[in-house]
DUF1501 domain-containing protein
Amino acid sequence: MTDVTSQTPLPTADACCAEFAAVSRRGLFSGAVALAGATTFVGSAAITTSASAATSAPAVLVVVSLRGAADGLSLVVPHADPAYYRARPGIAVPAERLLARDASFGLHPALAPLLPLWDAGTLAAVHATGLPAPNRSHFAAMEAVEDADPGSAARSGWLNRLIGTTSGTSPLQGFNLAGGVTPTSLYGPAPTMSAGKVDDVRLPGEEDGDGGRRRRSLRTLWDHDRSVLARGMRSTYAAVDQFGPAEAAADHSASYPDTDLGRALAEVARAIRGDVGIEVVTVDHGDWDMHSGMGSAERGWMVNNASALAGAIAAFFGDLGDQAGKVTLVTISEFGRRVVENASGGLDHGYGNVMFVAGAGVKGGRYYGSWPGLGTGDDADLQVTTDYRSVLAEIVSQRFGASTAKVFPRFSPESVGVMTSL
C-alpha cells in the first residue's frame, strides 16, 4: 500500500495503529477527489462555486501535512539533552552525524537536500510546537489542527478563513493538489479547488481538440440564467479558462525525486509558475505513524520518509523560477511521538513536534522555540511551548497582511520571530 503523497510504501510489518489505518481506508489518502459542501466537478477536479476569475497572488502559502504524526525528535534532534539518548538506545541519531548542528539541535542526516536552503537563510525549524492540549487521536487531532478554532461550531478551516480575508473570490485561490479528500483546513464558505494534477482541471466531457464546442455549449446554456446553479457553473468555466497558463507551464517533474510527494510538488510548482492567482495549496505526505520498525540513523522507515521529504522540497524550491520570491512553505503534523522508544523499535503517540518553515520571508538558518527539556518515563512527552497557531499566525500576518483575529478567532498569538516583517 502506498499513500497518495507518501514517499515509500508502508512497512510490511503491521506497524500502523488501527485508527490511522481506518482513516486511510476511509479515503483520506486515496486517489479519489471529493469536496464537502456544494461543488462542481471539473473532469478529475472539483470546484466550489464562486463569482470571478483569479488574479496574480502577491503571496503563496504551501502547507505540507505530515500525516500520521511525524517524530519531530528525529527530524530535529535535541542532541544537547541527555534524556534523548537515554530514552532511545536503538533509534537515536548520533550527534556526530547531525547536520546544521548548533549547541542544542541538529538536523537528521537524511535532510541533507535541505542544507542549501538552511545555509541560504530560507529554511528554519520551530521546535516544541503543537496543539494547546494533548490529543492522541489521529482523526480528532487532524481536525483540531486544521480547524484551528477550538470550541467553535462554525464549519470552516483556517486556510479557508485566510482566503476569505483576501480580495479575490476565485476557486483558484485555495487549491488542494494532493488528490484525495480536501482537508478541513480548506473547508468553508470561500471557494476552493481540488485536483490530483494540473492537467486534470477541465470541464466534464471536454476533450482535447474539440475546438471549444463544450465550452460554447455551456455558455449558451448558462450565461443568461440568473439562478444560483447558473452562477456556480459560470464560475466553474471561468476558473477553468483562467487556469490555462498553469496548463501551459512546463512540466519539470523529471527533476524531482520519483516519489508521490515529488510528483505532487512538481504539480504545485507548475501551477504556481502559471501565475493564475493561487494563494494557498495543501499537499499530504504520509505515512509517519511509526509504532514499530522505525529503523536506525542509517536506514529504515524514518530515513526513507525524511529523505523523500527533503528531496521533494529542495526540488520544489529549485523549480519555482521567477515565482520563488512569493512562496512560503510550512510543514505540520497532527502530533508528535513519545520520547522513549518502545519494545518494537518504534514510538507511540505523543504531543510536541517540530515545524519547518521555508521560502519567502523566512528568517532561516536557525532553530526557534523554547526548549522544555525531556523526561525518560514511559509516558514522557515533548511538552508544547509554542502553540502551532503562533507559527501560522506569523506567516499569515507577515506574508498576507491578514488579520490573525479573523484567521484564528479567540487566539492571541505569541511572537515566534521566524518571519520577516512586510
Summary: The chain has a mean pLDDT of 86. Residues 301-318 form the longest helix (18 residues). The two ends are 44 Å apart (CA to CA).
